[in-house]
Amino acid sequence: MDWIVAPDSDGRALRDVFPSMLAAMGVESFTDTIGIPPCRNALVLLVDGLGHELLRAHEADAPFLSSLQHSPPLTAGFPTTTVTSIASLATGRCAGEHGLVGYTFAEPGGGLLHPLSWTVRDSPDGDRVSLMERWPPEQVQPHTTVLERAAAAGVDVRVAVPRHFEGTGLTEASLRGAKFRGVRELGDLAAELLDAAESPGPSLCYGYHAGVDLLGHVHGPGSIQWRMQLRQIDAFVQMVAERLPPGVVLSVVADHGMVDLDPAQMIDADSDPALQEGVRLLGGEVRVRQVYARPGARDDVLAAWQDAVGESGSVITGEQAIDEGYFGPVTDAVRPRIGDVLAVLRTTGVIRSVAEPGESKLRGHHGSLTSAEQLIPVLIAAGG
C-alpha cells in the first residue's frame, strides 16, 4: 500500500543513532551510517513526538531547530511508539529482536504487559500488578545494549531523563549500562547535557523531553498548546547548542511523529461485538492494534477486523507483518508477543472506550506506518 512507510534497512533508522554517534567519537566496533561530524563527546536529545513532517509544517515555531543541519529523515521503526523506539535506540535493534513490540503486548502469563509501568492487570477489571519479578526486564530484553558496549569501551555514558524513570522496567530493559542522571525540569536537563559536553571525554549523554508528545496527545499536534511547547523546546535546544564546547556534537531526534484524530470518528472495539468474537487479548494502541486470537479463531478474527476497518487501514496476519519486515528479524522468543492479527490504521484509529477510557479521549496518536508517524528528524549542532 502506497501510504505505508515501512522501516528501512539502509542504516538510517533510529536504531542507528547511538552507533553513528559513537563511531563519530572514534570508538572502535561502531559504524557511522548517518553522517555525524567527528567529535570527542556526543549528546543525543530525543524530543518525544516531534515527527519530521510536524517540524517541517511548523518551522515558524521552531526557527532554531529548522536552521540546523538537515539530513534526510530517519525511520522510527515499528510500531511507532515510545516503548519500542527507545528500546530500538538503546539496543541498536529492531522490535523483533529486542522484544518490546508495542504499547501493550502479550506476556507469558496470559495477560498484556504495559511496558511503561511494567504491569499487567490481575483480571479484566482488576488492579495492575508489577511483573518486575515474574517477567523481569532483563529476560524480556536480554541483549547487550549499545550503552553497555560503549561503557565497556571506556566511554562515560549517561542518561538524563525524568527522575521517576529510575529503576523502571523500561529503563532496566533499554538503558542498561549508563549512569542515571534524574532530572526535574528543563534546567536540570540542560545542565546535565552541558556537564557531559564539558567532560574530558569520551562521553555520550542521552537526554529526553516528553512535553511535546504529552500536549500533542491531549490537545492535538499543531494545536496552540502544542505549538507553544514546541517554541519552548526550540529555545531550549538553542540555549544548549550555543554553549557547546569545540569538539562536541548534539543530535536532536524523535521517537515517532503524530497525527490528529477526532475521538468521535474512531472505531470502538469495546462496543462492536464483531471485533470481540474470537479475541483472547487486544493489545497495541489506537493506531496499531495487535489482536491475539483464541485457538482456531485467527481467520475469523482477521475477516471481522478487515470488514470493520475497510479502507481506513490495513489488517493483516502477524505472519504477514513479520514476512514483510515490519518488526525486522524476529526471534523465537519474541514471536509469541506479536499479535495473530494486526490492524495498522491510516485515517482513523481503534479505541477501547471501556478498557482504555483515557487513551480513547485523546486527540493525538501514533503507532502506525504513515509518513507522519514513521519519519523522524535528525538535526545536528556542533560546538565551536
TrEMBL record:
One of its GO terms (molecular function) is hydrolase activity. Pfam families: Phosphodiest. Gene3D superfamilies: Alkaline Phosphatase, subunit A. It comes from the Bacteria. This is Type I phosphodiesterase/nucleotide pyrophosphatase.
